[in-house]
Amino acid sequence: MPAWSERDEAGRELERRLGIRAERDASLAEHTTMRVGGPADLLATIRDRFTLRGAVRLAQSRGWPLTILGRGSNVVISDAGIRGLVILNRSAGATVDAATRVISADSGLSMAKLSTLAAEAGLTGAEFTLAIPGNVGGAVWASAGAHGGEIAQIIQGATILRPDGSEEELPREALELSYRSSRFKGEAGRGEVVLGATFQLQRGDPELIRGQLEEIRRWRREHQPLGIPSAGSVFRNPPGDQSAGALIEAAGLKGRRIGGAEVSTMHANWILNRGGATAAEIRELHTLCAAEVQRTAGIALESEIVFLGEGAQ
């Protein structure tokens, strides 16, 4: 695919204005947990909120195509890659206020780190975030949850950057959080970027908190195919008590392979990269799972992972 026509000028402006040295034609596969994906026209790694704010504002003011990636845990990037500027958000600052029991975190902080910070401060309520593989920004965007816990239960508010470059503090109610959905997936939040969030926790027994974290680690080792490239859960669970994994298994798809992509034999709601898989193969297997569940159970599964990049839609 032809490179983005403004790439070179954009790269020069990022360096001149913000001191950011962006890579050209950088592979994105290594920046996603599925380990697939073509190149970014321009890739910038940003490690603090001030620079993230500046880069987003610059891109918005210039009309540059912009994609922000966190830990790449719920995305599959197309084999053709992503046109425009891709920002790797590594803005991971955080503060813990012991008196109010509030943790303020930049959007690039990993959710696993959030659980650790809370545990070290003797605060409970965030243990479930250990099992969320993304960062704060992605977790807010997706209204993430795990092990019976949901972001909506602990988030106090978020700081966002609007498309016009203005910054705003939004309370929890304005985030429109529901099961795996938020304002950022709808028209109201189109073009908005999460810069950070605050979480209200409670005091807890440090020993009990450590025990809960260890129990989550044990459960994941026993029930999830960790250590093999994947994007985590592929489909949302349908309403009610139904499980997407159980529906895919009932459709006879456990272990099904297309090229290097495989439906996990441990957990059917995970698609694995068994080595050399392409984004196209993963997409084909994803489509097959949805079609077979629709055929056998009459249920339309909704994707939890997002397909990004040239030709992904």
Helix content: 25-40%
State the order of secondary-structure elements, H for helix, E for strand.
Answer: HEEHEEEEEHEHEEHEEEEHEHEEEHE
Overall average pLDDT: 96
**Spatial arrangement of strands, main beta sheet:** 6-7-13-11-12
Number of helical segments with 4 or more residues: 8
* Spans where pLDDT lies below 50 across 5 or more residues: none
Distance between the termini: 16 Å
Principal-axes geometry comes out as globular
Describe what you observe in this structure.
This protein has 313 residues and is of the alpha+beta class. It has eight helices and 19 strands. A five-stranded antiparallel sheet has the order 6-7-13-11-12. Strands 1-2-5-3 form a four-stranded mixed sheet, with helices on one face. A four-stranded antiparallel sheet has the order 15-18-17-16. A hairpin with a 5-residue loop joins strand 11 (155-161) and strand 12 (167-171). The two termini are 16 Å apart. The model has no long low-confidence stretch (mean pLDDT 96).
